[in-house]
Design brief:
Order of helices and strands: EEEEEEHEEHHHHHHHHH
Radius of gyration: 19 Å
Oligomer: single chain
Number of strands: 8
CATH topology of the largest domain: OB fold (Dihydrolipoamide Acetyltransferase, E2P)
Helix content: 40-55%
Largest sheet: 5 strands, mixed, barrel
Number of domains: 3
Number of helices: 10
Structural class: alpha+beta
CATH superfamily of the largest domain: Nucleic acid-binding proteins
Length: 211
């Protein structure tokens, strides 16, 4: 059993009222006791933690399986909740999302459920408002604010600066009838060593044909 304790901070927020964000539980390592529609119960010795997770995680776990999750503890006067992620990058992106005015933890988790992290970041960089308005509770103004506030942060991150751009390939796949989201998800699987656009398109089409 492993539980990692992080920092504690108190942040008054005019948007959410008096809000306390504790990173006192930053990592859980245990066994899955139960799986529900949008959360897991993770057992560490004799303590069970209810952890809200994305559908991507739920599809890849089963009861009694060992699991490790990076976690964010969200506390308000009327709420205490844990949100879990497979990687530290996902946790850090979640923290960026809830820093945007109008986006709470439930909306942030729903946004992270529309696709892989690469797909979501690509949507922000390309200003794809429709990718985010499909999430319940996220209107056009909130989606535009999200893109405006996070675009520069993502574009200047070391991971993004090193990542290949696929805008031309996305245009071709959309012309072939695939949605922007389908195109991005297929391209997220393209190996980094494929540089030629035609090779990327062929690889993406093979991935889409398997779905």
């Amino acid at each position: 059993m492993r539980i990692f304790i992080g920092d504690l901070s108190l942040n008054p927020s005019p948007r959410l009222g008096r809000e306390t964000k504790y990173n006192m539980i930053s990592f859980l390592d245990g066994t899955i006791k139960a799986i529900r529609k949008n959360y897991l119960i993770v057992m560490t010795d004799y303590v069970g933690y209810k952890v809200f997770v994305t559908p991507q995680i739920l599809l890849n776990v089963q009861p009694a399986q060992k699991t490790s999750l990076f976690t964010f503890t969200y506390v308000r006067e009327d709420q205490l909740a844990l949100y879990g992620f497979s990687t530290l990058n996902e946790l850090e992106f979640f923290e960026q999302l809830i820093g945007v005015s109008g986006i709470g933890p439930k909306s942030a988790l729903a946004i992270m459920s529309v696709g892989t992290l690469d797909v979501i970041k690509s949507g922000i960089l390309n200003g794809d408002v429709s990718l985010f308005t499909q999430v319940s509770g996220v209107g056009r103004k909130t989606a535009e604010r999200l893109i405006l506030e996070l675009k520069e942060k993502i574009a200047s991150s070391p991971e993004e600066l090193a990542a290949p751009r696929h805008s031309d390939v996305i245009d071709v796949l959309m012309a072939l009838g695939y949605s922007r989201t389908e195109a991005r998800e297929a391209l997220a699987q393209v190996p980094a060593d494929l540089k030629d656009s035609e090779d990327k398109i062929r690889f993406a089409l093979r991935s889409l044909a398997k779905q």
